[in-house]
Amino acid sequence: MRIAIATGEYHLPGETFINRHIQHIFGGAAAVVCGRDHGDNPYGVPVFARRGGEGAMDMLQGLVMMPLNRMRYGTGRLPYGRAKRALRDFLEAQRVEAILAEFGTQALAVAPLAREMGLPCFTYFRGTDASKALGQKNIPEAYRRMMPHLAGVFSVSQFLLDNLAAHDVRHPNAHVIPSGVDVRRFTPGEKRPLSCLAVGRMVEKKAPLVTLQAFLGATRDQPGAHLDFVGDGPLLEPARALVDKAGATAQVSFHGAQPHDFVRRKLQDTEFFLQHSITAKNGNTEGLPTAIQEAMAAGCLTISTRHAGIPEAIDEGETGWLVDEHDAAGFEAAIARAMQAENRSDMALRARAVAETRFDNAALLKKLEDEIRAACGR
């Protein structure tokens, strides 16, 4: 089956879940429709960039079409004029049979044209698009208008579907399919006792300062404990300053942004994975963090928060520990409790087993393909 993957930017190495779809869905038969093409095409797929230069006629047409599209669809982001014709020509030339828009906000741009062309259109909600985006006054209404014209909806967590439903955004053919992890590449290795790892952008939603403070508090009497932090962002320097002030530079290593293989190798010999995810002030949330699924596959015990889809992955007391968002004291206590647990080896085996059962991305990709085929058949 020939499918077009619609995404914001191509190619972004960090978007492993989207890249896997581009590379493997329906045997690697994808084309890509993106808002911005960075020129790197490691999968050798046909690529169409929606944003291009506008002629004078298109600019004049935009004075009419953008307000008209906002009135019809709740958004002015739809292609029109020459850009719309070029996208239609691309989809026809590639003999595309369906469109999968990665992120609901991308579906807004392509769903009307898909309907005009008689192409089944699907979207995949992953986090920001079903949390922060809902705070924009036009997005909930735009989603509500879009839903009847989609063949199906996917989400990485039930939490996101519930969040959409709270804004009266629903679809009768909706499915929870996590992004998943390659359980053949992410495997347990020999664990370093009391080793911890945190991975992610150093931003508000990840609460890295809470993670650091909790780790330092929980390991005051554990001189062998060590935390590796992978990621950069605006809170990196404040995090370094916090560690310097605490005199704990020997206990915490900051690695900055690193390739995916670096994270994989770190997970193999790490015992505990720390992620204190919170809802940002602008409403932004996780979906179901891929890093947690990878940590479980590598046999790490996760200490995290009851946030978004994380409780759908972590069985408390069985594969990890969860606390409420912003509960710094509780997070510190959970880390201390984890390091003193006597059944850590058994829990690590259960974490790996759960990853193999729930988060094998090969099985999840097949499930996605089956649901798309079924919807297209209907």
Question: How would you characterize the overall build of this protein?
Answer:
- This protein folds into 2 domains: 3-180 and 360-377, 3-Layer(aba) Sandwich (Rossmann fold), CATH 3.40.50; 195-358, Glycogen Phosphorylase B (Rossmann fold).
- It has helices at residues 16-24, 56-73, 81-93, 104-117, 139-146, 158-165, 208-218, 236-246, 260-268, 290-297, 328-340, 344-358, 361-377, and strands at 3-10, 30-37, 47-49, 98-102, 121-125, 152-155, 174-176, 195-199, 226-230, 252-256, 272-274, 301-305, 320-323.
- A 7-stranded parallel beta sheet has the order 3-2-1-4-5-6-7, sandwiched between helices.
- It has 13 helices and 13 strands.
- Helix 7 crosses helix 11 (328-340).
Indicate the mean pLDDT: 94
- Low-pLDDT runs of 5+ residues are none
Q: Which of globular, elongated, flat, extended, rod-shaped describes the shape?
A: elongated
The major beta sheet can be summarized as: 7 strands, parallel
Oligomer: single chain
Per DSSP E runs of 2 or more residues, the count of β-strands stands at 13
Roughly how many Å apart are the termini? 15 Å
CATH class of the largest domain: Alpha Beta
Order of helices and strands: EHEEHHEHEHEHEEHEHEHEHEEHHH
